[in-house]
Amino acid sequence: MSKMSKIVETALEKKHREYMDNADKAREHLHERSLEEDEPYKIPKMIYHTKVESKDMFECQMLLFNEVEDCERLVIYLHGGAYVNEIRRPHIIFCDKLAKKVNACVFAPIYPLAPNHTYEETYEIVEKLYMHLLEMNKPIIIMGDSAGGGLSAAFAEYLAVKDLPQPENLILISPWVDITMSGDYDKVEYDPMLGVDGARELGKSWAGDLDPKDYKVSPLFGEVDKLPKTTLFTGTHEIIYPDIVEFYNKLKDNGVDAELNVGEEMTHVYPVYPLVPESKEAFQHIVEIILG
Question: Residue 73 and residue 107: Cα distance in Å, rounded?
Fold first, then answer.
């Protein structure tokens, strides 16, 4: 673990959200979020590598990075936040850098969040976006982190169920693949960010009336044999590390071209943190994967 990574992990521990490992606190957080209106997301003021703008697409605010005619590929990026928290600055920085490095137009939906919304509305938005991108006849990459990584995997399974074309690449950064948190987490020595009981409550809210073990919200339990080339990133300092390894093994057992990248002593979604050296290595690997 690099010195900067340790600094980031210590900072995350100090900001640890109690609602991630306490069910009562999670319900309080959901109540607080339910009182907040769905305000439009304001793009942070900073120096960008690409043109960044907000558009209304498919009844959803969509952030677009590098929307130019000569872009060579298309990326759908689904942000994390336990399905209750909005997109964050590190996500914006990541999407902007990625769009520049691989000459892609990156679409980041500001999708509706729990508890006022469930997975259903987001599926409608992402499906419409995906069908729209298919018409452009360019390589498509679907990727996301944490909850967004789980959503990315689940959506790919959904495409298979509907017998629709798969993206060229599926890239999952610390994907939350089991919102029921039913795995064995005793062997995870440390996680400065996440927990079990609180996360489970947040997951239930996202699922709504759906069984939380349904593949649409917990892709660990879905059919994976038709998934495209899939690249996963995870750190050993995250509670869901065992679930991600299990999902990877399931992909391999079903003949999927899958690759697992494990960051020793790395925390949740470490590839998204711009100042961490290990993040830069992971980002470069993502670029190489996309460029083939």
Answer: 11
Ordered by start, the domain boundaries in the chain are 3-291
Q: What is the mean pLDDT of the chain?
A: 94
Question: d(Cα 63, Cα 54) in Å, to the nearest integer?
Answer: 5
Distance of alpha carbon 53 from alpha carbon 105, whole angstroms: 11
Q: Name the 3-class secondary structure at 79.
A: coil
For residue 54, the SS3 value is strand
Q: What are 95-139's pLDDT values in tens digits?
A: 999 999 999 999 999 999 999 999 999 999 999 999 999 999 999
Judged against a pLDDT cut of 90, whether residue 191 lies above it is answered with no
Region at 247 (left for phi over 0; alpha for psi -120 to 50; beta for the rest): alpha
- Asked if residues 196 and 21 have their Cβ atoms less than 8 Å apart, the reply is yes
pTM of the model: 0.96
CA neighbor of 269 nearest in space, from 94, 145, 84, 152 = 145
Topology of the domain covering 3-291: Rossmann fold (3.40.50)
Task: Using DSSP, state whether 102 is helix, strand or coil.
Answer: helix
pLDDT confidence band for 169 (50 / 70 / 90): very high
For 2, phi then psi, to 5°, come to -70, 165
Q: Are the C-beta atoms of residues 129 and 57 closer than 8 Å to each other?
A: yes
